[in-house]
Amino acid sequence: MNRKPTPPDGLVIVDKPSGFTSHDVVAKMRGIAKTRRVGHAGTLDPMATGVLVLGVERATKLLGHLALTEKEYLGTVRLGQTTVTDDAEGEITSATDASRITRDAIDTGIAKLTGDIMQVPSKVSAIKINGVRSYKRAREGEEFDIPARPVTVSSFAVYDVRDAVAEDGTPVLDLVVSVVCSSGTYIRALARDLGADLGVGGHLTALRRTRVGPYKLDTAKTLDQLQQELTVMPVAEAATAAFPRWDVDAKRARLLVNGVRLDMPEEYAGAGAVAVFDPEDRFLALVEEHRGKARSLAVFG
């Protein structure tokens, strides 16, 4: 009797190609891993490339918690043009000569967009407004507002400023930037807001995500590479890399797996998700501290 091969179990760090949606990558991975149980942590726009974290089988339970971690990007912001999508995918809605914008003015504008800020997400985005995706409303020509929300931009740096001429003849400036930010930050909205502040408009022309939490581009594989050899980070290793670790004895391990809320050491107060391991180094659960007790987020043991 031929048994179906057991699907792999863990995280896959993909270097997403341009032109693919995050869902396209998930669909591709379902074929490669031969399982329907695949998900992703944090979407990437079709134009963007770089780190996309996928979970296969049990690791899908980690994804919602991984999506909340810090992210890092390299990108190109074009000053002098606005687009309907705030990136190069959308049609140009205005063009303004940006050649007189100084580096000092750029640095001042970037400083305003660094730290804890309120950001209005791009209208062509997956944000839901009264249960309907924002991009759906935008495509149907609806007039609507998206409320600003708090995000943290830990670092926003300009590596290079290049003079360029757009296809319509407008003198523009292309900024090569790096951004480190919290989950939910839209880099194209940063480009839009920087251009608006400088009075010439702006949009994103290229974006590459280089890190999601502890997972970096140097460990990511292209879809072609994964088709040749599927590289999976075991769930326990993935949890150790991403979350604080709490080692418990055998008795506590049994109680925890049976749903008992254990007293949690003070050092984990406010730490968010914590990975629990037993004496045999088995990954048991993700928990968080709640009123001194361990509240279960996902059980693996």
UniProtKB/TrEMBL annotation:
It holds the Pfam family TruB_C. Residues 188-230 form the tRNA pseudouridylate synthase B C-terminal domain. SUPFAM superfamilies: Pseudouridine synthase, PUA domain-like. Transmembrane segments: none annotated. GO terms for molecular function: RNA binding; tRNA pseudouridine(55) synthase activity. Residues 31-187 form the Pseudouridine synthase II N-terminal domain. It is an enzyme of class 5 (isomerase). The keyword Isomerase applies. It catalyses: uridine(55) in tRNA = pseudouridine(55) in tRNA. GO terms for biological process: mRNA pseudouridine synthesis; tRNA pseudouridine synthesis. Keywords: Isomerase, tRNA processing. Its EC number is 5.4.99.25. Residues 243-300 form the tRNA pseudouridine synthase II TruB subfamily 2 C-terminal domain. The active site is at 45 (nucleophile). InterPro entries: PsdUridine_synth_cat_dom_sf (IPR020103), PsdUridine_synth_N (IPR002501), PUA-like_sf (IPR015947), PUA_sf (IPR036974), tRNA_psdUridine_synth_fam2_C (IPR015225), tRNA_psdUridine_synth_TruB (IPR014780), TruB_C (IPR032819). Belongs to the pseudouridine synthase TruB family. Type 1 subfamily. Responsible for synthesis of pseudouridine from uracil-55 in the psi GC loop of transfer RNAs. This is tRNA pseudouridine synthase B. It comes from Streptomyces glaucescens. The lineage of its organism: Bacteria, Bacillati, Actinomycetota, Actinomycetes, Kitasatosporales. The gene is truB.
